């Protein structure tokens, strides 16, 4: 497939990560983890997001790596609090940015030929913008996570969103974790094969944390992969985003088969979790917000 540039669309987030008795503040969102992965593989990378004016300095982390920003205004920047215990995670979202609208995407369309949808909650990207993306017929990939979440006060609850059918119909390559996929299949009373057929999905990438995962395509072929050993875990937040971006780079940009693409992505994720790919200090926001730990 002839693609050479990508726009990652979704919230750039200020994340608090509670893990092992420690609390850190870091830059997050699919825009960060997938954006950096695409860019570090030499791909022209754009981030379309909304960030409050007072928080714009954190975007230096992205621009310093050559990512091009298409950032709109919002009163508040999306903020997640991630409570992590090995593979288990629960989240709070005390603040969220204004939805990304059609005109924010449309004005930059000439600059990219691949759109990677990285919504973190159902209202992250407006319905009009999703409908616009569907009408473009561009190559679009999507992490499903934002469309299987419901905000109950500040806590994030797993639930299939009303926006999910629109999002699935937009995307040719879809990524979900095992729990998310089970939730979707249960909600729609479909098998994985039926889901792929119903929404015209070419491939679905399913991650299962420390148990690896698999990819299934529209012909029914499946490729399974094992998680690679990790000596010391420094970060698991964003691991799925790194995996999916790395998979797309080899599968779509380089034209490798499913097995080779999975193998490469699983090796890269192990490096990421060990803090050797996107280093924790790269994402740490302490230098921007001096009162964080």
Structure description:
The chain is an alpha/beta fold. It has a single domain (5-280), classed as UDP-N-acetylmuramoyl-L-alanine:D-glutamate ligase (3-Layer(aba) Sandwich). Helices cover 31% and strands 28% of the residues. The protein is built from ten helices and 15 strands. It has helices spanning 30-40, 60-63, 102-106, 127-136, 164-170, 178-188, 192-199, 239-253, 258-273, 280-283, and strands spanning 5-9, 13-19, 22-28, 44-50, 68-72, 79-85, 88-95, 114-117, 139-143, 149-152, 155-158, 173-177, 203-207, 213-217, 222-225. Helix 8 packs antiparallel against helix 9. The N and C termini lie far apart (44 Å).
Please write out the topology.
Elements lengths: L4 E5 L3 E7 L2 E7 L1 H11 L3 E7 L9 H4 L4 E5 L6 E7 L2 E8 L6 H5 L7 E4 L9 H10 L2 E5 L5 E4 L2 E4 L5 H7 L2 E5 H11 L3 H8 L3 E5 L5 E5 L4 E4 L13 H15 L4 H16 L6 H4 L10
Parallel strand pairs: 1-4, 1-8, 2-6, 4-5, 8-9, 9-12, 12-13
Antiparallel strand pairs: 2-3, 6-7, 10-11, 13-14, 14-15
Short descriptors:
293 residues, alpha/beta, UDP-N-acetylmuramoyl-L-alanine:D-glutamate ligase, nine-stranded mixed β-sheet, 28% strand, globular
Can you tell me the CATH superfamily? Answer: Ribokinase
How many β-strands, per DSSP?
Answer: 15
Helix content: 25-40%
Number of helices: 10
The topology string of helices and strands comes to EEEHEHEEEHEHEEEHEHHEEEHHH
Q: Sheet bearing the most strands, described?
A: 9 strands, mixed
Shape: globular
Q: Domain count, please report it.
A: 1
What is the CA-based Rg, rounded?
Answer: 17 Å
The CATH architecture name reads 3-Layer(aba) Sandwich
């Amino acid at each position: 497939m002839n693609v050479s540039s990508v726009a990652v669309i979704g919230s750039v987030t200020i994340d608090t990560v509670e893990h092992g008795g420690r609390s850190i503040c870091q830059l997050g969102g699919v825009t960060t983890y997938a954006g950096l992965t695409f860019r570090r593989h030499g791909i022209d990378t754009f981030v379309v997001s909304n960030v409050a004016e007072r928080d714009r300095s954190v975007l230096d982390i992205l621009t310093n790596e050559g990512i091009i920003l298409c950032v709109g205004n919002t009163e508040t920047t999306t903020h997640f609090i991630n409570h992590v215990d090995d593979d288990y995670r629960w989240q709070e979202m005390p603040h969220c940015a204004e939805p990304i609208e059609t005109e924010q995407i449309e004005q930059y369309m000439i600059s990219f030929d691949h759109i990677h949808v990285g919504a973190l909650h159902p209202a992250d990207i407006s319905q009009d913008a999703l409908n616009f993306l569907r009408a473009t017929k561009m190559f679009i990939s999507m992490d499903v996570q934002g469309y299987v979440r419901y905000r109950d006060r500040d806590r994030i609850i797993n639930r299939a969103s009303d926006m999910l059918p629109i999002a699935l119909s937009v995307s040719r390559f879809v990524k979900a974790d095992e729990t998310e996929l089970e939730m979707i299949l249960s909600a729609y009373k479909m098998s994985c094969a039926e889901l792929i057929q119903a929404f015209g999905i070419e491939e679905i990438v399913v991650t299962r944390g420390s148990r690896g995962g698999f990819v299934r395509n529209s012909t029914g072929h499946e490729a399974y992969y094992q998680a690679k050993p990790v000596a010391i875990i420094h970060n698991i937040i964003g691991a799925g985003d790194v995996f999916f971006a790395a998979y797309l780079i080899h599968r779509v940009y380089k034209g490798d088969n499913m097995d080779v693409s999975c193998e490469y992505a699983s090796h890269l994720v192990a490096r990421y979790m060990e803090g050797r790919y996107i280093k924790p200090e790269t994402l740490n926001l302490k230098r921007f917000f001096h009162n964080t730990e």
